[in-house]
Amino acid sequence: MNTKASTVRQPSPWVLPAVLTLVLISFLAAVFLGIVDIPARDVLSALTGSGSPEARSIILDIRLPRIVTGILAGVQFALAGLLLQTITRNPLADPSLMGVSQGATLTVTMFLLFTVYLANPDSHSVNELPIAWLPPAGMVGGMIAGGIIYLLAFRLDLSPIRITLCGIAVGAVMHALAIGLIAGWGSARIEIILEWMSGSFYARTWDHALFLLPFTVVGFAMLPLIYRPLVLLRFDAAVARSFGLSYRRQFSLVLLLSCALAASAVGAVGPIVFVGLIVPHLARFLAGRHFPLVLPLTIVLGAVIVTLGDLIGRLAGGAEEIPIGVVTAVTGVPVLLALLRKIP
Amino acid sequence: MDARKSSITVGLIVVATILIIVAGLLPGAKMLSIDAVLRVLVAPDGKIESILVWTLRLPRSLTAAVAGAGLAVSGYILQSLTRNPLADPGITGVTAGAVAPIVTCFVFFPSISGHLYPFVGLAGGLAAATVTFWVARGGTGHPLHLALGGVSVSLFLGAITIYVLLFAGPQSTALLFWLVGGFSGRSWANLLQMLPWVLSGVLGALILYRVIAMFSLDDRSAAGMGVQLGFWKPVLLILGICPVAGVAPIAGPVAFVGLAAPHIARLLRPRGTGWEIGLAAAIGSLIVTTADLIARTVAIPKELPVGIITALLGGPIFVYLIQRGRLDFRSEGP
Questions:
Q1: Mean pLDDT score across all residues of chain A
Q2: Do B311 and A176 touch (CB under 8 A)?
Q3: Residues 76-95, chain A: which have Cβ within 8 Å of B?
Q4: For residue B293, is pLDDT > 80?
Q5: Does a structural domain hold residue A100?
Q6: Which of A110, A151, B21, B174 has its CB surrounded by the most CB atoms within 10 Å?
Q7: Residue A238 CB partners (closer than 8 Å, separation 6+)
């Protein structure tokens, strides 16, 4: 992490208020705009509990839960990315580059394979898919992947670079296994998995939001506890220890937290590529390396980016909406490549 | 290892590959006996055994062998060119670059003949590699930049591929089986279509082995020995992508072979770069034919995608390399 004094500039005082306003605007836009045109007055009356039943069901049962799930997931992805980038001292660390997403994909695939396909091999019905169980299944996989990376890399006191590379390797193997299972499965029902794998908020309900909420809350509650270690973890192990940090324990704690945040989010909405990678960089860019501001900005921007990305996907795709995973991947790559070029 | 030992090693691995290919003719939905196989190999007739051997099992095994050699040489060239032990067609984004446009053509432009797919793959692979190498400053920067740049490019193209698959609807099952890499039902025509691409890569690498050897030093030394960097870098890059462009339309992306085979070849320490390339090709063939044999025999009559087996074989090698600390690249020279 670059800490050259010359690059430290004071962030503008209006950055945080501006971004908070942006959250509000994007939230309202996401509620009011959609592929079904509902007049603004109907939206308002639906929100207050009156209004036509169609408008009420579209707003309260489809759009709102979807937006809230998205915001929670976006915040978790962004926070997980920031934590990973900080502790591995690698500006490119991201849950989807480090195997967590792939681990989740693998367990979701296996879960569907065992519960649906092996349980009733002949039927072609799609209505009995255990959708509600996908988030926990994905979360277990993400945590397993994180555990494997921890055992492979950190237990041996490997450098952050090696941890990242181990993550890439574990992710690649798990991805190959998942794709292999899907292909070997050869069922007519693979579309549900494809939809999930591309990362989508489609048909997310209040259940998904409720599943994510405890993780977001725990993540927020942990922030004051890990804030000081986090500042120190940006340095070398030796330097951090000289400040009195129990490096190994704090490192493991933060790694566990970021894995839990990322894994639960992946479980709920699928692997949304790059949110965890780009948002912390955006926050750092706006905050000018003023670390106390980076953290809140990351959280807020995570919500904004995901809400806007989902809105774009919903409006641009027409009836076949573009999954947000595709939107973030396509818009995120130029940013990422520019960042990669800038890093010495 | 001197030249004689090196040639013996290559010979042994080639013999092992041939044995695996012959052994691979036996099992399947209908088991054949060894003398039946040998009989129809020498004198093909119109009986069922002969058809099984000559039109189903032999072409697919040979396709696997050729694909393995091509991927291994591709990995070797990319690793030497970038002096990065982690470079391989998968990590540098070349495979994803070849796959994404082929899938797109398959779904949206069905009128394009399958014979043009290698060209589509070559263009896509080149484009992806260019971006990755641009990010990693010609691939000679930090290994991490190359790996992360390539993985990001792969993720990007993977997202597009999945989106196209969502569009494809009923075709997506067939596409997915191709996407994970496999040799099921590959014919002589497929083999012939792939062969020139792989041959150009392998023979090109063998002919240019001196240049490749100098590239595995560093840019300055290579230039000091009279290598025209501006000319040879793009030539070697195209040479390294050619086999992938040929293999990808036929067999899909077969993971980790391009990464693992060159390292195993180097661990055996043959005589020089030329022998290393030959050894890597032979080892690649052996790995892919073995993986293919495993993939289609563990669950007869169904078969697993070969990509699972190669990922399971290659993944641990990858992690081992990371942990052993061979992150800086060193070659023995010509």
A1: 79
A2: yes
A3: 90, 92
A4: yes
A5: yes
A6: B21
A7: none
Is B138 within a domain? yes
Q: Which of B241, B216, B218 is nearest to B70 (CA)?
A: B241
Could you give the angle at the alpha carbon of B233 between the alpha carbons of A340 and B195, nearest 5°? 110
In a domain, B333, yes or no: no
Crossing angle of helices A64-87/A15-32, nearest 10°? 140
- Burial classification of residue B1, based on how many CB atoms lie within 10 Å of its CB (0-12 exposed, 13-18 middle, 19 or more buried): middle
pLDDT of residue B327: 47
Which residues, including other chains, have CB under 8 Å from residue A118's CB and lie 6 or more apart?
A: none
C-alpha–C-alpha distance, residues B278 and B12, integer Å: 12
Q: A93 near A262, Cβ under 8 Å?
A: no
- Identify the domain containing residue A301 by its residue range: 23-342
So what's the ipTM on this one? 0.72
- Considering only CA atoms, which of B103, B246, B245, B114 is closest in space to residue B174? B103
Q: Which of A77, A179, A339 is nearest to B148 (CA)?
A: A339
Is B330 within a domain?
A: no
How far, in Å, CA of B78 to CA of B239, rounded?
9
What whole-number distance in Å separates Cα of residue A80 and Cα of residue A271? 13
Residue A114 counted as domain residue: yes
A70 vs B251: CA distance, rounded Å? 38
Q: What DSSP state is assigned to residue B332?
A: -
CB spacing of A156 vs B323 below 8 angstroms: yes
Q: How far apart are CA B33 and CA B66, in angstroms?
A: 26
CB contact under 8 A, B134 and A180: no
Interface of A with B in 5-34 (CB under 8 A): none
Number of structural domains chain A divides into: 1
* Confidence band of A162 (pLDDT split at 50, 70, 90): confident
Question: Residue B325: which pLDDT band, with cuts at 50, 70 and 90?
Answer: low
Instruction: Identify the pLDDT of residue B288.
Output: 92
Residues from chain B that touch A168, judged by Cβ atoms under 8 A, are: 91, 147-148, 151
Q: A89-113 burial by CB neighbour count: b if 16+ within 10 A, else e?
A: bbbbbbbbbbbbbbbbbbbbbebbb
Would you say residue B242 has pLDDT above 80?
A: yes
Place of tokens 């196989």: B37
Residue B266, domain CATH: 1.10.3470.10
d(CA A113, CA B248): 27
Residues A153-177 have a mean pLDDT of 76
Tell me the C-alpha distance between A62 and A48, whole Å.
Answer: 16
Q: Which of residues 217-276 of B touch A (CB under 8 A)?
A: 255-256
Tokens in use for A182?
């899907």
- Closest C-alpha among B289, B306, B290, B295 to residue B61: B289
| Segment 128-157 of chain B within 8 Å of chain A by CB | 131, 134-136, 143-145, 147-149, 151-153, 155-156
Model pTM? 0.79
**Residue A127: is its pLDDT beyond 90?**
no
H helices of B180-269, where? 188-207, 209-215, 219-224, 229-251, 257-267
Residues of chain B contacting residue A319, judged by C-beta atoms under 8 Å apart: none
* Alpha-carbon distances of A66 from A63, A89, A210, A269, A314, rounded to whole Å: 5, 34, 12, 10, 11
B41: number of Cβ within 10 Å: 14
